[in-house]
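For homework, think about our next protein:
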Amino acid sequence: MHSAKGTDFLFKPVFLRGVSGSFHLVLLFVLFLSWVYKKFKVGRGEGPKGRNGWSDEGLVTLLDWAVRTLAWGALCVSFRTQLFNSDEPKYPFLLRVWWGFYLFISSYCLVIDIVLYREHVNVSTQYFVSDSVSVVTGLFFSYVGFFGKNEGTEDTLLEEPLLNGDSTATNEAESNKSKGGETVTPYSNAGFFSILTFSWMGSLIATGNKKTIDLEDVPQLDPRDSVVGSFPTFRDKLEVECGTINRMTTLNLVKALISSVWKEILLTALLVVIYTLASYVGPYLIDTFIQYLNGRREFKNEGYILVSVFFAAKLVECLTKRHRFFRVQQAGIKVRSVLITMIYNKGLTLSCQSKQGHSSGEIINFMSVDAERIGDFAWYIHDPWMVLVQVAIALLILYKNLGLASIATLIATIIVMLANVPLGKLQEKFQDKIMESKDRRMKATSEILRNMRILKLQGWEMKFLSKINELRKTEEGWLKKYVYTSAMTSFVFWGAPTFVSVVTFGACVLMGIPLESGKILSALATFRILQEPIYNLPDTVSMIVQTKVSLDRIASFLRHDDLQSDVVERLPRGSSDTAIEIIDGNFSWELSSPNPTLKDINLKVKNGLRVAVCGTVGSGKSSLLSCILGEVPKISGTIKLCGTKAYVAQSPWIQSGKIEENILFGKEMDREKYESILEACSLKKDLEILSFGDQTVIGERGINLSGGQKQRIQIARALYQDADIYLFDDPFSAVDAHTGSHLFKECLLGLLSSKTVVYVTHQVEFLPAADLILVMKDGRITQAGKYRDILNSGTDFMELVGAHKKALSALDSAEAESASESTSMSVEDGSMASANEVVQKQENKDVQDGKADDIVGSKGQIIQEEEREKGKVGFSVYWKYITMAYGGVLVPFILLAQVLFQLLQIGSNYWMAWGSPVSQDMKPAVGRSMLIIVYVALAIGSSFCILVRSTLLGTAGYRTATLLFNKMHFCIFRAPMSFFDSTPTGRILNRASTDQSAVDLNIPNRVAAVASSMIQLLGIIAVMSQVTWQVFIIFIPVIGTCIWYQQYYIPSARELARLVGVCKAPVIQHFAETISGATTIRSFDEGSRFSGTNMKLTDAYCRPKFHIAGAMEWLCFRLDMLSSITFAISLLFVISLPVGVMDPGIAGLAVTYGLNLNMLQMWVIWNICEMENKIISVERIFQYTCIPSEPPLVIEENQPDYSWPSHGVVDIRDLQVRYAPHMPLVLRGLTCTFPGGMKTGIVGRTGSGKTTLIQALFRIVEPAAGQIMIDGINISLIGLHDLRSRLSIIPQDPTMFEGTVRSNLDPLEEYTDEQIWEALDKCQLGDEVRKKEGKLDSAVSENGENWSMGQRQLVCLGRVLLKKSKVLVLDEATASVDTATDNLIQQTLRQHFSNCTVITIAHRITSVLDSDMVLLLSNGLVEEFDSPTRLLENKSSSFALLVAEYTVRSNSSVEN
């Protein structure tokens, strides 16, 4: 191989390019020789004039420049195509030789220039400059060629020795993948040159071109920018400012924020000043330039010096602007992440009253909207004072040119700025209202999404959708006002420069100040620069206002009360033998209310005692536990706790993530302990059924687990903590009888036998095992003592136990006795045996499905990665967006108005430049009054065009936003339940808030800006080419390069923008979870760990954000450079033309426009990129308008009879159900019939398919095979609403919505007040509601938090009583209710639903015993189906075993 290398390079394109370059060089060399020879020959004299006033020397020089340009161009192209893709360590030999040679020639030329200058030969400055530049570039290239190396790609993988096999290669690739996220951004150790030109972004942008960027490709932030590094200092500064956070004012917050980014603020302020000065160099020199073109030369080579000053000013302007923008964004990212962390930490410590004032949706808005907005304010931070500086300098320049007329300019500018004030005020007011109404809408949306399952079961979703639409209507009202106010504002701003110039020139005419074209153009260029600060002023004003609103909102949130930290006295572990002590405790959730929640609590619990707490619904049992945790505000008294604590809440709180992570909850893995806890919580079997075992990813709020599984995972989490004190809030209610007793035995009596345990329970059978029983009533402990003692002493406890006995008496006692003797032993074995069989079957089945299983892989997880579109945003998205409103009719009119505006603007400036004389001694082309009248007419015309454009744009944008909102929400509400199970609420909310906001307020302007900036750019190019068509020679390659740069940059920028969207959802979701589980997190003292996770997620969100900013400036810097060069070259063309060839006024006009060239070129590209990034919001909303929807709600031709179902016979035939196409069957061919008008109980272990059967009955999941008939009608053939509105259900988790008692019982408003009161009385809530002030209109807070679990359950019962359906389903409805209330519910149902089909899923055997039929499910199949008496007669039936075991448990408790 190596021998061939010698000649190999002949066939490489690099060689060919090199040779072609070298031929050019020879040509250059000949030219140089002739040129030098010319220089010597000419000596002092002027060269002979050639044709058309060009000297031979001029021609040869021009040719030399042209050839050089071509040669370097060819080299650039070869560089791009060859070198960057080659992996050679050095540049090709020929290339290096050429560079050396180039340096030699350039130095030679420069030396000769100097020699000639010494000998006083007149050498043109042009040669001096060009040769000096050539020497510098030659030096640079030679250095790169001989000492640098080509870093095209450093692919070590390609140089791996082949003999090692590929193991090392793959390992390396693996480690590289993980390393991506570990590397710190190159920015943190970039050199001066790299930072100056943003070259440190190069590697990431190059990566983006090779592949789709993922989060691991984006490097970590510099520690100074990351929230982990910057938050502690910020917090300290804030505490220094205001002592405690609760006393914080907005001012303190602002000071602390500023002190955390003061370096960036000072640096950017300096850059702003330099930028402002540089930007006015152009307008200042235009007059001089025009006089020069007119033939007035002040000194030798004035032209070249003018051009170089123009060029230098452009460079400085470009550098300062780019670095200012980058630094402010850097500061913004820092501020945003510090605020997010602040809000998050506050959310963890909020007290309960403070929390009731804010729904979780509102708190999330603080984080997703307000913090975001304050971060964005960094863009505007210097604008207010920058405006003043710019106006001052502008007035000085105008004063120099136009004298006293500049006072008129000042007045006009002030008028324009004042015109803004009322508009700004209005905009701010509307913006506020939009935010308020959006908060309300988001609050409702998040509540509805959380409870979507209930809405679907009841058939209420369309009613609630109309509720959301109502809220949105209000929002839209404000939005419309806001949009039209904005249209007015933009009219004022586009018209501003025209208005100011009309006033100024008018004043000149009135005062008799002579108007020369140079002065006019200088003034126009100045107005053009003034336009930007004036144009941005309303933006800045509204940004300041919005930011202040956001700062106030955040400050007031951070001021809220935290939990009282002194409620509980913590004693160190082992320092006392008393675990819990409460002395004279009075506690109240609402400190303002006259009667406290808990009164006169005295309690002393020794280490290692088991304490049971019982009492009726709403007696304060859960509050007692909360007060031990320190959650309930203390009125008086003391609480002491000794040791660490763990808590199991009544409604389970599960984080989304793996099951294992939920159980470990931040602790290290200890296999042995872990396995024993899984065993104790009987989770082993559940984990075997799940396809990924304990690595299964749980959906949000544990959505793919049954209630019992969630509860057991919660218990396992508490056990794993190994705390000293355990607090259980009714943990056995959500699990079936068998599992309940197993948990009680294994956990409370087994693993926790040496710990202090306080447990609330409704199940009397768990009381005898307690060392101390507390009976609660109305917030007091009415009785306390051992089971036997209390039983004989008081009435409250007797009621509870009596109710329990009454339930048990339903079991035939003799039968129970015999059963208990024969089976107490075999129960455990039996259940184990059946479990083993199942596992066997499972395994055999798995062997057959082995292949299928592999393919499923991660698809089997319920929560899929958030879909992000990859690659380009399709044209179809833009097209759909543009044509959505009125079929796109308005678009051509908007474009036409913009084009007319541009033409009239150019026309008016052209008119002024052409119509006024170049100098005072020339005769003007038209009279002064004529000059001004035409100018005013054109100005009015152009302003009118802008008004039309803004109004039409506002209309189209508003209409589109409305249509998108309605479409998306309709599709979400009609989506099947599986969509909500697999999509975290955060994702849907993100689209309804952030993306919808973008569509409401941003995107129309972004899309319009692309069109208008392109039209402006074309206008400038047209004007410049009018003067020097030669400009096109440069324009075409420069624009080509610009487009190439933009194409090179877009893939990375687009993916980074998408990553920002994808990384934002986890921050919000983690926050939402934290708020709902704050009590649990605090009880385990895990706050700091959660805070850490939040910081990590925030940094992951800031990483792509920071690099987007870098990429943007990387691109802009390069484009700015290109357009500055274009501008400089076109100026060179202009000055190299002989005097008199062209009108200096028109040439000046071209220069005036050219001054804006780099800004506009940038503006076009920036707008395109910004639009691409923002349009992603539209794309994300479109994704949700294509969700497959549920079957139709009503099928006209198949509507069941009004009285259907009249008998209520439910006939199930070979029913097979799976939750998703890629998941296993849950019901595997079920066949049975529930007779009409009878009660059927469904029992079975957790996960046997009970809940799934009910979901199939309501068609929440559609059957994979088989059918369900009700009264002979196949339910799959009728509309969903027809089906669901005729069935009733009391669901597993009782839900209430924010609103009133009435709206909770009767959301569809179908019943009268009398009927509602009647239902309330039937379900024993009537008196409770009569006590409240508002009666039926008394408020229900979010999730019904101000009602106890049991009361919420009774409300659900009330809904059913109102509906009076023929078929009623109870899904574990008795789980969170004490036995007495349970009996009451049972009695109510027996009384009012005696002739209905009642299907009960129960965990308390007693609630099934009085059923007519019992269905026992096991692993998705019918194991037994018969009447309870018959099943009990057969001693070996599974049902008999279950009952026997329950009786053993209960009898032991009663007899104790």
The two ends are 93 Å apart (CA to CA). Residues 43-52, 149-180, 812-859 have pLDDT under 50 and may be disordered.
